[in-house]
Every structure is written in structure tokens, then in C-alpha cells.
Write a structure and sequence with these properties.
The complex is a heterodimer. Chain A contains no helices and eleven strands. In chain A, strands 2, 4, 5, 6, 9, 10 and 11 form a seven-stranded mixed β-sheet that branches. In chain A, strands 1-3-8-7 form a four-stranded antiparallel β-sheet, with no helix packed on it. Chain B contains no helices and eleven strands. The radius of gyration of chain B is 13 Å and the shape is globular. In chain B, strands 2, 4, 5, 6, 9, 10 and 11 form a seven-stranded mixed β-sheet that branches. In chain B, strand 5 and strand 6 form a beta hairpin. Classes of the chains: A mainly beta, B mainly beta.
Chain lengths: 110, 121
């Protein structure tokens, strides 16, 4: 079974930059996995940030950016703000109509 | 404004089959542009993709759930449904329906509010 790995947690200072990654237990993530990123605050539904590697969803601030870094997908938050404190999930397309979510990263801004 | 709303029982007994429905308003479920997905999240844990359906009836399922899952669409009611059999406590979760734009984008742009399902006798 394919497992998509993310860092369990990250801490970033207000105004700072943090890069979250999304990898595979076996193999490399590339654009053909169409990595997407979702933000979820407690009790809320997930919100789309980035899809198809690096396309920002409508209304998402440009401090959020997506990319491929080495063998992983990455989400970078530049100039972190207090309301960026959330859980972040990546999702990868494995082919044959199958998606898998990552384990999630809890980001703390302090 | 497109909205999705899940409905179904909040409590299911072990070994029973869960049946949930997602009602779509503000757009046609028959649109060629979308896939319709089910995603779940146990309390305090991460998201798990369950499966999806296209208006044609084509379905794709999470391999780990495939033997127990069935997703169907009712275009006349603008709804799609999830059935998950042989429920156990491990299936206790918030169940979301979500619209996906395109066949391979990872863009789940609209989500229902989610419905909590508890498996308990």
C-alpha cells in the first residue's frame, strides 16, 4: 500500500518562511502525481490551496506556493501569518483514478 | 452558488452497511466537468480518500476499501451516494462529499460540511 509522508509538525515565526514536503515511501513525486495541497483548521472543512503542483486556487494569497523539490512535492509559505496556523494535507494522484492523502502537517505560528 | 450536503445516519451498528447521500445544489451532477468524491476523516486524524464517481457511472475506489465500497449516482435527484459494508469502529469518522474539477487535477474545490458517523452497538 502506498503511503504518502509529510512532516508531523512545523513551527514558524510570524513573517517567516516554511516549506512542507510530501513524499512517497517508495519512489519520487513528480508533476505526474498532480500534487495538491489543502489547509484545514479545527472543525472546518479543508480548503484548497494548490492543485496540479503549483496552481493556486482562487482567492489563495500568493504567499502560498507549490513546487517539486528533489523527489517530493512542496508547499512553501512565505511571510507566515497567524491565521496560517492549521493542518496541511497533500494529495497525490497514483493513476487509474486513485488518490491518496498525505499524513498531514500541523503548522504552528509563534 | 454550488453547495453539497451530506445526509445519513449518525450511528451504525458493527457489521452493518453505512448509506450516505450527497445532495448537490446550484449545479448539475451531470456536468461533464466534474467527478464526485467521498472523503473521510477520523477524529483527530488525517483525510482518507474513499472513492469517486462520474456522471456516466464510472467509479474509482481506494484499493484498501474497494471490497466494501460502492458509490452510485442518481442524476434525476442530483445526488450521489456511498455504501460502505461491514462497518467496524475503525470506520468511525466524519464523512465528506466533495466535487473534483476534471479527471486528474487533485482539485476538490467544493466540500460538504461533513457528517459524523459513529460505529457502535
Amino acid at each position: 500500500q502506498t503511503v504518502v509522508t509529510q512532516e508531523p509538525s512545523f513551527s514558524v515565526s510570524p513573517g517567516g518562511t516554511v516549506t512542507l514536503t510530501c513524499g512517497l515511501t517508495s519512489g519520487s513525486v513528480s508533476t505526474t502525481y498532480y500534487p495538491s495541497w489543502y489547509q484545514q483548521t479545527p472543525g472546518q472543512t479543508p480548503r484548497t490551496l494548490i492543485y496540479s503542483t503549483n496552481t493556486r486556487s482562487s482567492g489563495v494569497p500568493d504567499r502560498f506556493s507549490g513546487s517539486i523539490l528533489g523527489n517530493k512535492a512542496a508547499l512553501t509559505i512565505t511571510g507566515a501569518q497567524a491565521d496560517d496556523e492549521s493542518d496541511y494535507y497533500c494529495v497525490l494522484y497514483l493513476g487509474s483514478g486513485i488518490y491518496v492523502f498525505g499524513t498531514g502537517t500541523k503548522v504552528t505560528v509563534l | 452558488q454550488v453547495q453539497l450536503q451530506e445526509s445519513g445516519p449518525g450511528l451504525v451498528k458493527p457489521s452493518q452497511t453505512l448509506s450516505l447521500t450527497c445532495s448537490v445544489s446550484g449545479d448539475s451532477i451531470s456536468s461533464a466537468s466534474y467527478f464526485w468524491n467521498w472523503i473521510r476523516q477520523p477524529a483527530g486524524k488525517g483525510l482518507e480518500w474513499i472513492g469517486r464517481i462520474y456522471t456516466s457511472g464510472r467509479t474509482d475506489y481506494n484499493p484498501s476499501l474497494k471490497s466494501r465500497v460502492s458509490i452510485s449516482v442518481d442524476t434525476s435527484k442530483n445526488q450521489f451516494s456511498l455504501k460502505l459494508s461491514s462497518m467496524t469502529a475503525a470506520d468511525t469518522a466524519v464523512y465528506y462529499c466533495a466535487r473534483e474539477i476534471g479527471a486528474v487535477t487533485g482539485l476538490f474545490d467544493i466540500w460538504g460540511q461533513g457528517t459524523m458517523v459513529t460505529v457502535s452497538s
